[in-house]
């Protein structure tokens, strides 16, 4: 099966075109900060709690706050029911997400505490880790947690020998490579970089470039979503 | 005055012109906001007043605490901050003998106290000596977002006195986002409704007028 036909992809997008993204800041009342994000076929809900006292006490760091992200896929988020609970894949994503955020949160302001980030994937269609990070960043800002920047993530990859932005599930499965990238958009500092598949060095550079450009687009949507929540009443 | 809402990473000034204050940080000659909030300039400092976030204890704040643990000579108190606070037996208005702490305050009791000290390691001590401090024995306590406390109080307490006038309830707003209310039950429910409205619309202008109308409109 051809994944690229007449320069267009299976869902009709151009190689450097993204799927539609919708971001809503603060849908949950009980959480300190929250975000709901739809990205193509992905639906992700993130709740942030804290900073709060880290329990049990021996995990506390006397100099800074801990960042504890928990990525979880709902059992109904994929076609064949996913066995619920943490597995190898979700533990890995939780870990890399925590580490990405540790680099932008001003953790030294809240020693001995923990910041919980719960990322719940309700519907999955490739690129959930990027969707999770993008949504978690908005939720953290909504929770009033001090950060150097609002992180954002986007993936690029290679399909049928062509470097493309934001792979769909089909492209991810049958394509040649997948490259999720998370950056701090202001400094373009890379917070996360993973790859599976094969690309030449030139293709890699091209893909990385494309992913960073995609990140910057999404960054604008994140900022809009945050400002929208706090501007709602001012117009009245 | 311009009320500009900023998000983390927004440039709010340059280092030569201003100094980075609360809610900001400087990097390569620029001052950036580190939190979601409103930019304000005061005495050469650029501050970002947060619109959300947890309570950060400051010495002298009057707060409402809930006893979490009873020790032989002290209590650990939940003050709605990321850290529990220590209340020593000699920092209360009663004379307490060794091991007699639970005769005065038990787990779950609410108190009105003052932040006495906060150190580098964020060990917090509170005191019950002095003016408003006491054990809370009646009324109800509701929790609001700590970042909204200044709006519930209003300029020089204008909002609190408005609420008091219109509902006839006694209100005490703790800096840590707990509000103690005493009064007739139907008045309390009206008051809580008004407080929730203030909380939702805290970042808007002309709020006092709207709340006044809301309370009169019954």
Q: What's the CATH first level of chain A?
A: Alpha Beta
Task: Quickly count the helices of chain B.
Answer: 4
Here the CATH topology of chain A equals Ribosomal Protein S5, domain 2
Tell me roughly what share of residues is in helical segments of chain A: 25-40%
What's the CATH architecture of chain A? 2-Layer Sandwich
Q: What is the number of E strands of chain A?
A: 12
Encode the helix/strand succession of chain A as letters.
Answer: EEEEEEHEHEEHEEEH
Backbone shape of chain B: flat
Biggest interface, residues from each chain: A-B, 33 and 28 residues
Domains of chain B (count): 3
Beta-strand segment tally of chain B = 16
CATH architecture of the largest domain in chain B: 2-Layer Sandwich
Radius of gyration of chain A: 18 Å
Task: Output the structural class of chain A.
Answer: alpha+beta
Q: How many distinct helices of chain A?
A: 4
Number of structural units classed as domains of chain A: 1
Strand content of chain B: 25-35%
Terminal Cα span of chain B:
33 Å
Strand order of the largest sheet of chain A: 3-4-5-7-6
Note the gap between the termini of chain A: 54 Å
In quaternary terms, these chains amount to: heterodimer
């Amino acid at each position: 099966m051809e994944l690229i036909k007449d320069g267009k992809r299976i869902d009709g997008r151009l190689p450097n075109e993204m799927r539609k993204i919708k971001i809503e800041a603060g849908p949950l009342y009980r959480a300190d900060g929250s975000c709901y994000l739809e990205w193509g076929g992905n639906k992700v809900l993130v709740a942030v709690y804290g900073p709060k006292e880290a329990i049990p006490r021996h995990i506390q760091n006397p100099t800074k706050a801990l960042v504890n992200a928990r990525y979880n896929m709902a059992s109904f988020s994929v076609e064949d029911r996913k066995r619920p609970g943490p597995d190898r894949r979700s533990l890995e994503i939780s870990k890399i997400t925590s580490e990405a955020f540790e680099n932008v949160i001003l953790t030294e302001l809240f020693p001995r505490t923990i910041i919980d980030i719960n990322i719940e994937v309700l519907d999955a269609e490739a690129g959930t880790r990027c969707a999770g990070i993008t949504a978690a960043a908005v939720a953290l800002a909504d929770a009033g947690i001090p950060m150097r920047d609002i992180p954002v993530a986007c993936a690029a990859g290679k399909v049928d020998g062509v470097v493309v932005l934001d792979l769909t599930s089909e492209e991810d499965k049958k394509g040649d490579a997948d490259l999720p990238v998370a950056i701090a958009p202001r400094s373009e500092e890379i917070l996360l970089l993973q790859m599976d598949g094969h690309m030449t060095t030139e293709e890699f550079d091209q893909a990385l470039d494309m992913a960073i450009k995609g990140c910057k687009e999404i960054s604008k949507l994140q900022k809009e979503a945050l400002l929208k929540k706090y501007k709602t009443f001012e117009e009245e | 005055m311009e009320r500009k809402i900023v998000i983390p990473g927004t440039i709010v000034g340059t280092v030569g012109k201003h100094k980075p204050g609360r809610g900001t940080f400087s990097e390569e000659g620029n001052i950036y906001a580190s939190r979601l909030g409103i930019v304000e300039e005061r005495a050469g400092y650029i501050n970002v007043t947060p619109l959300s976030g947890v309570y950060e204890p400051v010495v002298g704040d009057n707060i409402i605490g809930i006893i979490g643990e009873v020790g032989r000579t002290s209590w650990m108190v939940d003050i709605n901050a990321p850290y529990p606070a220590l209340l020593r037996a000699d920092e209360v208005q009663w004379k307490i003998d060794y091991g007699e702490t639970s005769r005065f305050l038990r787990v779950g009791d609410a108190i009105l106290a003052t932040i006495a000290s906060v150190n580098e390691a964020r060990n917090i001590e509170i005191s019950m000596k002095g003016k408003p401090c006491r054990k809370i024995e009646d009324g109800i306590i509701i929790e609001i977002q700590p970042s909204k406390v200044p709006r519930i109080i209003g300029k020089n307490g204008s909002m609190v006195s408005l609420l008091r006038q219109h509902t006839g309830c006694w209100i005490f707003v703790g800096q840590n986002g707990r509000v103690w209310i005493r009064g007739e039950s139907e008045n309390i429910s009206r008051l809580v409704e008004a407080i929730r409205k203030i909380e939702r619309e805290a970042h808007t202008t002309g709020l006092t007028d709207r709340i006044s109308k809301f309370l009169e409109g019954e």
